Amino acid sequence: MPALLPSPTPPADFQLHRFTAAEYDQMIRDGTIDGKPLELLDGWIVEKIPKNAPHDSAILRLQRRLMKILGDEFLVRIQSTVELDLSMPDPDVAIVAGPEDRFDQNRPDANDIMIVIEVSDSSLAQDRGFKARLYGRNKIPAYWIVNLKDRVVEVHTLPRNGKNPGYRDIMTYRPGDAVPVVVGKKTVGSIPVSEILP
Asked: Does 61 map to a domain?
């Protein structure tokens, strides 16, 4: 499985093409990449890592608890595409401002996303590195990594862009802790870590 390239500059001896979000979206509409497990990250079309049962279970657990906390004002999108600069990732969970008909014809962008969540096991290095830089650069207010390997939830806040994009603050929550759900600078509830981890 191809790994994400560490920088936007491809090796000189490779014949690669970086795509815009519009080009990638056109390929989806044309059916060129229909049904393939791919996403656009920093202009590169990359293969998505296959999911296992604990990964799927953690997503289901998050979805159910977040929907109870957030009610109808916000949407809990599961593995649905969002539009960022040069990227169209499919985060495991994205909490976006409603109502749902706002996205009948358009995908959420960075201004719509309150929290983005990736469930990580084999993808942990990419989620802590590349994805943290991507979401931070786009100023997503909060980025959670449900770290199945270490059985913790890492909450990244205070995004920064510029030459060293990412997040200024990272809090780690363990079983016995509860992760606060903060939307628009307001804590609307919390989820026990033990209820997220399968």
From this structure: yes
Instruction: Give the count of alpha carbons within 13 A of 177, CB side only.
Output: 12
Give the residues of the chain that fall short of pLDDT 50. 1-2, 5-7
Residue 40, in any domain of the structure = no
The CATH number of residue 58's host domain is 3.90.1570.10
Convert the pLDDT of each residue in 150-186 to its tens digit.
Answer: 999 999 999 998 899 999 999 999 999 999 999 988 9
pTM recorded for the entire structure = 0.85
Q: Write out the residue range of the structural domain in which residue 138 sits.
A: 53-196
Q: Cβ atoms within 10 A of the Cβ of 129, count?
A: 13
Query: What is d(CA 157, CA 153) in angstroms, rounded to the nearest whole number?
Result: 13
Number of structural domains found in the chain: 1
Residue 142 and residue 116: Cα distance in Å, rounded?
6
Least Cα distance to 75 among 114, 43, 24 occurs for: 114
